Structure formats: C-alpha cells, structure tokens
Task: structure prediction
Amino acid sequence: MTASHDASATPYGTLPPASPLPQRRPVSLPRLAQIRAAGEKIAMLTAYDATFAAVADAAGVECILVGDSLGMVCQGLPSTVGVTLDTMAYHTASVARGLHRAQGTAWLVADLPYGSYAESREQALRSACALMQAGAHMVKLEGGGWTAPTVEFLVQRGVPVCAHLGLTPQTVHALGGYRVQGRDDAAAQTLRRHALELQDAGAAMLVLEMVPAALAASLTAELPHCHSGTAGQVLVLHDMLGMNLGRMPKFVHDFMQGAGSVRGAIAAYVQAVKQGRFPDNALHAW
Ligand code: KIV
Result:
C-alpha cells in the first residue's frame, strides 16, 4: 500500500500547535456585555473535551459550558445527580487545554455539580476554586433563593458566577421530572424574585431553562441591569448534532441536517442564533 505523506497532518484529531495570534478577541465579561449592548445574540454550547471545544470555538461559539450534562452525555448516568466535582474538574481541564492549544477565544463556564455548593458558602468557594484552577472563567450553579448569599460570597471573592433558574436538572427528583417551569402566576413570581436576587448578588449571567418565552421576555425586561429579552442561547452539543437517540426535546434543533460536518453544523447554529432564527418561539418554546 502506498500513501502520500503530509508532514503537517497529525493523527488522532491532534489540535494544531499554538501559532499565530488569534484574529478574534478573547471573550471576557466586558466583551459579552458589549455584544449584548449591541443587540447581538450570544451563542453558547456545551463541550466536554478538548477537540469539540476547539471546533466549537473555531465555528464562532462565544461561550462554552462544561455542563454537568456530561453525566448523561459522557458517563451514561440517568441524571446529573451522580456527577462529582473531580469529574467536572477533569472535563474542564480538558476543554481549557483544547481551547488553549487551538488558540481559542471562548469564555469558559463550568458547572458546580450536585452537592458541591449546598452545604456552605465556604464549600461552594472551595468547589469553585477547583473548577477555576482547572481553567474555568466562570462557574454556574442552580437554583434561587438560598443560592443568592452563596453567589454574593463567590463574586466578592473574584469568582464570576452564572446562575441557572427554571428547570434545574440537579433537582429533577424534587421537581418531579423534566418539566416546563414558571407556568402559573405564583411560580412565575417566584422565578422573577429569584432572578432579581441573583442579579443583586452579582451573578453576571443567568441561564433560564424550560420557562415560557413570555416569562423569559418579561423577566429580563424587569431586571434593572438587563436589556429586554434573553441575551443568547445555549444547547447541549450532542443534542444539536442530532445525537440524542431519545425523543428530541422541543427546544432543540438538529443542526447536522444538511451541514456536512460538525464544524458546519455548529457554524449554522451560531448563525441561526445571531440572526434570531433560532430559537423560533413558535417551534422551540412554550
Ligand atoms: O449541564 C448543562 O448542559 C446545562 C445546560 C443544559 C444549560 O446546564
């Protein structure tokens, strides 16, 4: 067998060595605020390993989330409840190395897993430090009310925090399943109050999962430091690549269709988010 030899080709999906300075500016909190102020939507995706993170970054994703959804996606767990801090740190470090190696510019958010921040604010800080030292720029934690003092404690100590309200998968057993949240007036009011408290506590970002579109719009309009409407979109990478073998959740679209490559599918997602074509409230929202 003969094979032509290309000395620059590398096996096993090796990422390119660090070379010219990146063309794009590194994404930072001020940069995200600028994008938001300009009325541009922010594209966010999960990634759990070096290669997917580098590909997502190259395709234009601004924020990468090392979500604890890796429990289901990578580990085959039934929920995110079994994900440990060590596992989150391992995947965060892998993603951070991938971005660094490929001279990526994405803002890297890592999930504080179940049981790693509820005991005390000090426990939350220790857990957050483990993820920041693994390469995260920001940590995400789920829930409202009791979490506000924890967010304030972390932010005061220099840890940027993303809050997560609505469907909070770590409490799936308490919620009774993966259901739309904030449907009735009382639940919507609680969500509004929690969002306001989290903003006052210093959370720089807020993920709203599976809440009615009208509530997301009115809630963001009511937050004093927030422009009306959500700032962007986040999806689980494997879902938007059509790799979900179960029933596709309503809020997902398979961007692999017609894309030809993973990078093409992610670029199509970024473009659809930026152009306001995804999500389409008529199809993907409640
Ligand atoms: O863990 C995760 O992937 C998440 C997203 C669904 C927002 O929290």
